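Table S2 (text version). Query chain:
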Amino acid sequence: MDEPSPTTDPLRNQFASLNDLAHELASLEDLAMRGSWRSILDKVSLARSLNLLANPHDHLIYLSYNVLALSKLRRFADASNELDSLHDFNSHHYKYETYPQLYPNRSGSMVPFSLRFMHAQLPIKLGNRQEGLDRFYFLLNFISQKIKEKESNNLQESVKIWKRRENSVLNCLIGHHLGNKEFNVCLDLIKDLIKHDYLDPVLISKLGYIQMQVGDLEGAKISFSRVETMLNEGKNDGYSFLTEVAFRNLVSRNKALVYLVGKDYVSAVREYEECIERDHTDVVAINNKALCLMYLRDLSDSIKVLENGLERVPTRALNETLVINLCSMYELAYVNHSEIKRTLSNWIARVAPDDFDASCTRV
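Corresponding structure-token output:
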């Protein structure tokens, strides 16, 4: 086979669709987007039983979806067992160069990054927090090595991909430390990144949130101001997933949070309304606007905000936190709240993804 031209885009030329990447991958992706996790398990099982997965990478991609589906359905032990069947991610069995006839001119690992991520996440879900954290830090080191390797070869698109992965892992790590109230660890992680000119507005905003939790309101304002300056100057390191609208909404939500802490709920509502005008699927803004209205003792409008959000964008707005808040408001506002919550629960049963925890309605 001829060597590919260095000026061509290999993804565009070799893979016209998701199905060119793996067997019926488009169908798997569609099921995942709809939250049809049980259907994914059935599809993977059928493909395996009929020997439809011809290539090594097909098996790995289907295994990734299977592990993800099991995790979403909270079958963490089964997901872990499935993942353990791979044994060693660095095995030659999972390298392209082991199969030159199938993957000419390709080298490196074919293990999807999602599997490495879930390998770190699953021990935490199974109660082995320290093992999970160790794996996350090992994964961070692995990513750092990949970034250096890609930079040395001047592969800028690959650098962006790996830095986005680094971003995701860091955000997850910070979330785990926050959940355990290890604020100093979170602060050290983020400040170290900022010291190395890691300009991700989401992480700097997260620094502000942590500063608020430890009582450093002025420090939080400085962090939020830095994010707003980045927006005004058009600075985004390119490694976050923020669109311009998402960036503007991040800045507005940061402002609203400062107002909320200062109990200026009217100003906070104004900021959240601007977010919703820009992006009607901004669930954080929808939820927080409703909470601010509740604090202003406008329970009726607060309920309407959440109900309208669920009605307009059920696939985005339907999360347990928002539903819990709505049910709490029903309990405060109505004598017959049990009947209203039952109606909501029946609607959720029709539209919710498989992994939605229906017990949050408290029916």
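Notes on Table S2: The CA atoms of residues 105 and 111 lie 17 Å apart. The two ends are 64 Å apart (CA to CA).
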